[in-house]
Amino acid sequence: MSRLATSPLAPWAGLFLGALAWFGQHQTGADVNTWNCQVGNGGLVVLAGFVAALVAAAGGLISWISRPPEDVQNRRFARFVGVGGAGVFLLAIGFQTLAGLLVPACLR
Amino acid sequence: MKARVVGDLSILPPAGFRSYGLWFWAGLGFMSIETAGFALAIGAYLYLMSSAPQWPLDSPSPDLLWGTLQTVLLLASLWPALAFSRAGRRCDLAATRRWGVIVAALNALALVIRGFEFPHLNTRWDFDVYGSIVWALMLLHTAHLITDFIDTAMLVVFLFTHSVDVERFSDVDDDCIYWAFVVLSWLPIYLLIYWAPRLAS
Questions:
Q1: Following DSSP, what letter does each residue of A6-66 receive, concatenated?
Q2: Residues of the domain holding B113
Q3: Which residue of B has its CA nearest to A27?
Q4: What is the model's pLDDT at position A73?
Q5: CATH number of the structural domain spanning residue B49
Q6: Which of the residues in chain B have pLDDT under 70?
């Protein structure tokens, strides 16, 4: 049995990594933009969004594959929350990235 | 359905204080969304508490010391935050820098105390539903403490390293309003986490 299948944290990975990625992208984008709006332009927004989306998706994947051979109800619920959470945060990351592309950095 | 325009923010100047600045309105929107998040989490806590045979389910109540110390610190920090805000609105750079350092230090201290609060909750996040909702409320508020600390610290460094115009002074004022929101949103959470288990048992 793989370590993921027995780890108590793995089913929650999508929820926690998704939240962390969303929070990190938001904080990075806002702070870089405040510090120097020439730097916080579209390219950086897209890059930060891409990295955050990868982290959230990886979390969702970990939740999904953390299924033991005999899945128990509590663990299945946690895995579904993890995958669903990653999906919600992916959506939020997508909207943040889109907003960063629509509004010029130095007007933000 | 016919749309009804209640205000046109496009007429606002590029920079201004309070309702004359676009960021003030953005901040209000941000706080409204976050208030809804807090309300949902508080509603979940009350729902779980009302349907449980006893509360906490199978843990001792959280220790009062660190949470109460946190509450006192947060309430006390409103005074330097007000001074920081007023200095910003006067466009007094020296005073803004001075109060900014104090407010950022208090923000950092709140995070240190928060670090001591978690081990004294006397429950783990995955122990039972009581532990999960207590940790969820704490983490939700801690995310706000972290955000405000980063924003304030960065703003203060900016005040020392960049030329400061009206837009940055209005950022100072907005930062103080947000800090007041973080402090006030803590009060119902403090009562729920630290006092509800005592009053319910």
A1: H-SSGGGHHHHHHHHHHHHHHHHHHHHHHH-TTTSSHHHHHHHHHHHHHHHHHHHHHHHH-
A2: 22-200
A3: B147
A4: 78
A5: 1.20.120.80
A6: 1, 201
